[in-house]
Amino acid sequence: MRGFQEILDILAKEHNTTPEDVLAEMQRALDEAYDHRTPETQSMWDQLTFPTGRPTAATFLQQMAKRLPPVKDEAPCITAGGLVCARGRTFSPSPSPPTPETEGSPGAGHR
Question: d(Cα 31, Cα 45) in Å, to the nearest integer?
């Protein structure tokens, strides 16, 4: 897997924002998902471990990347559309419900 900072840099460039904003948004989404676990997602969370007791974007992505099936001779990469393996199979995150920052305005919340 690419280095975490490289992933943040790529996503920031793709979305015309800063790596710090990308990280903050990733962490906000993770905190929301972690704090509002559902019966459907609880088993996934139970299989993950976090040194601080809560997921950080870096530890979450690292653990999720390890769960992807191996692809011969090529590692997965992460793009704005989700995880993409070497053969082009995409693992897109499910859409999240609109938040006050994003509802009704394309690109709201991005700098």
Answer: 12
Query: What are the residue ranges spanned by the domains of the chain?
Result: 4-91
pLDDT tens readout for residues 16-63:
999 999 999 999 999 999 999 999 999 999 999 988 889 999 999 888
Instruction: Return the residue matching tokens 């590692």.
Output: 75
Residue corresponding to tokens 């995880």: 83
Contact assessment for residue 14 and residue 80, using Cβ atoms and an 8 Å cutoff:
yes
pTM of the model: 0.59
Give the three-state DSSP class for 91: strand
- HSE value, Cβ hemisphere, 13 Å, CA-based, for 15: 23
Does position 91 have pLDDT exceeding 60, yes or no? Answer: no
**How far, in Å, CA of 26 to CA of 58, rounded?**
9
